[in-house]
Amino acid sequence: MLGINTTFDLGDGRQVTIETGKLAKQADGSAVVKMGNTMLLATVCCKKDAAENVDFMPLQVEYQEKYGAVGRFPGGFFKREARPSEYEILIARLVDRALRPLFPSNFHAETQVLVTLISGDTNNLPDALACLAASSALAVSNIPFEGPISEVRVGRVNGQMLINPTVEQMENSDIDMIVAASMDNIMMVEGEMKEISEQDMVDALNFAHQAIKIQCQAQLDLAAKVEKANPKREYCHEHNDEELRERVNKETYDKVYAIAKSFMGKHERNDAFDAVYAEFLETIPEEEREEKEPMVQRYYHDVQYHAMRNMILNDRVRLDGRKISGLRPTTCLQLMVQLSSPVVKPSHWPPVPSVPNWMSK
């Protein structure tokens, strides 16, 4: 069976292909992203309904690079592949950070996104394609998602900006930055640079965003060809009481605003917020309290958010009394240990080398 695919150019002649409908057909959505010999498979699965009283997005994102993707198998002491490496965990976090805010705020069904490296290329890094694969899998599914999005790596060699540079090019690059964005907004930036100017940073972000717009359009074109992606599924994961919401806002907002502006310590402030919540909860008839408490918690959290945000914006002051242009004072404790002292250094300790071992070789 032939899959549905679309292709776009990175701008330097390299082609990226996104394909769906061929692998992982039982998942809610799946996509294979290919650039050169680098291939990634992303799958997404989602429950139909949310668990009871869940008021957050239970999203799990994992990224895996198996030895088999580059024709190898693990050897040495560990003969099997177990937990993800630190590198895989960090890439999964980059993808999670970009995806999580784009699910509807009242969508709470458990969702799992898995990105797996099928084939590795020694010169094309797969990490910059992981978010493109994940977003593509969501785009071709019926899961509610306010995307598409994508991530790209930006490098600069000899003053020239590059999108998803090769391993060889990165050796001479003074920028190593991964940018995540949608068609309209930049969402996340992660990376390092060698003392570049502010204007260079702005130029790099704009350069990345232009490339991401092309990738987002490719996902939209692909989703338009997939029947199950349109329309997205209907859901109802929150029960709301607008009259109760208005009551919570009316009776607690001023109290929360006053506490936020009192410049208490963190623990005292949290205790004061809890007291306001408990006081309001007592006003609800006991026979209705258990049923309405999850809604009250949700509405009160929104009141706290808006009150503290408005206090900072209106009064131009932070929760600890600092002005918005001020910095938090920092202190540093320096502990000096005299290793030559017989009290600190037991006699059986080896002598302290004058330079690290790796420098003496």
Describe the structure.
The relative contact order is 0.10. The radius of gyration is 26 Å and the shape is globular. It contains eight helices and ten strands. It is α+β, with helices and mostly antiparallel strands and 361 residues long. Helix content is 34%, strand content 20%. Strand 2 and strand 3 form a beta hairpin. The strands form two sheets. A six-stranded mixed sheet has the order 1-2-3-4-6-5.
State the gist of this model.
The chain has helices spanning 86-99, 130-139, 167-170, 198-224, 242-260, 266-281, 286-315, 357-360, and strands spanning 4-9, 15-20, 29-35, 38-46, 59-65, 111-119, 149-157, 160-163, 175-182, 186-193. The chain is α+β, with helices and mostly antiparallel strands.
